[in-house]
Each structure stands twice: as C-alpha cells, then as structure tokens.
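Hello forum,

I keep getting stuck at the same step: I have a sequence, I want structure tokens, and every attempt I make locally crashes halfway through. Rather than fight my setup again tonight, could one of you with a working pipeline run this one for me? It's a single chain of 241 residues.
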Amino acid sequence: MLVLAAVVGVLIGLVGVGGVLLPPGLVAVAGMDPHVATATSTWAFLFTGVVGTVAYALRGIVPWGMLGRVGVGVVPAAFLGAGANAVLPGSLVLLALAALTLFVGVHQLWPRAERRTDRELGTAALVAIGAAVGFGSALTGTGGPVLLVPLLLALGVAPVRAVAVSQAVQLPVVASGSAGYLQAGLTDLWLGTVLGVVAAVGTLAGAFLAGRLHADRLRVLVAVACLVAGVFLVVRVVASA
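Reply #2:
Ran it on my machine without issues. Output:
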C-alpha cells in the first residue's frame, strides 16, 4: 500500500489525475471494504491537497476568486457525497468508482486540441460545477482534480488555471468529505495519514520530474492503469453478484 501511495503521489505531481487509482488500489491490494477504501483515500488526499495548493500558490497562479466560488458548491456537496457513500450498497460504490476510473482512462487517451482562449465562467456555473465535483469526488474518494480538470477544460478554461484551481480544490473537498466519513465511522485515520504523507512526498517528486518526462507518454500510462483498474472493479462486482 505504501508503494501504491507513492506511485499515486508521483502521478498526481506529473499529470494531476493519479489520485483516481488510490481507492480501487485499496480495494484490490488491501482487500478493503469499498466504503472504508473511499473514506480512507479521501482523508489521504488532505496531504496531497496541501502540497498541491502550496506549490501552485508559490507560483502565483491559483485563481483564488474562482476557487472561492467553486468551494461554495463543493463544501456542502462533498459532505452529502460522503453520507451517500455510507448508505449505498458496496456494489454501487464500486460501480461508481469503476465508471469514474474508466472515464479518466478514456479521457487521458482522447486527442487534445490546443486552446488559445481562457473562458471566464459565471458564479452560478462555478457553484454548480463545485457541487457536482464535491459530491462525485467524496462519493468515490478521488479528491477533486480528476473530475474538475476535465469539466473546466471542456468549458474552455485555460489548462494552467484548470489544473491550479483543481489542485487547490482538494482541500475543501477532502475536509468536508472527511467530516462526513468521520461522522459515519468509516475512515481509517492512521492508514490514511500514512498513505497521505507518502503520497504527498510522491507528489513533490512528480512535480520535480514533470518537466523532465514526456507528458503524452505519461498520460498513456495513466490511461492504461485506469482502464485496468476500472475493468477490475467491474469484474469484482459481477463476480460477487
């Protein structure tokens, strides 16, 4: 699990979406209950969120106004997402996680067009996006960026701003989501803290390597890993049915 956390952290630092692999990894490697896996991974992303936020803040590229409006939707929705996870059957949690993991795999393989514009989204749109991201991220234990980055890019936000706000949004997502999971008694705090610290160190290493490795090849590796993880989760649900 420590190796898994380190790999996830490096991928977060390199391409921003490696966090989606932690919950299915905990299910597959540690044999954890889906509810406990998503709750524990949500807590772990608190540490990568701090690292990502500080790293982008020091570069002066976090759009704080945009983050604040997204956060208005994120906070209550993430708490509700954690509550929904606690009452849903484990098979439905696994299917939601499988769908998200497969989506990320396909998204990483999708051809990327260069964007020369940076669209400004209104307050209502950003709050609604935050609510969707908060609920979905807490429900699946995936932190935030994996949902927010594709949404913002699809809506015309410049990649640099999309990635920066998505790294910073981890903090309200995991804080609110973890509050819901702690209330339900699902979080393994000790394990989540250890994995989070290891993943945070990996994130720093990934950020250091980001300019030295070929981004497109890394995205292919992430895509393959996500597709394999997604298929594994689907097979697991079918086999246990």
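The radius of gyration is 16 Å. If your local run keeps crashing, start a new thread with the error log.
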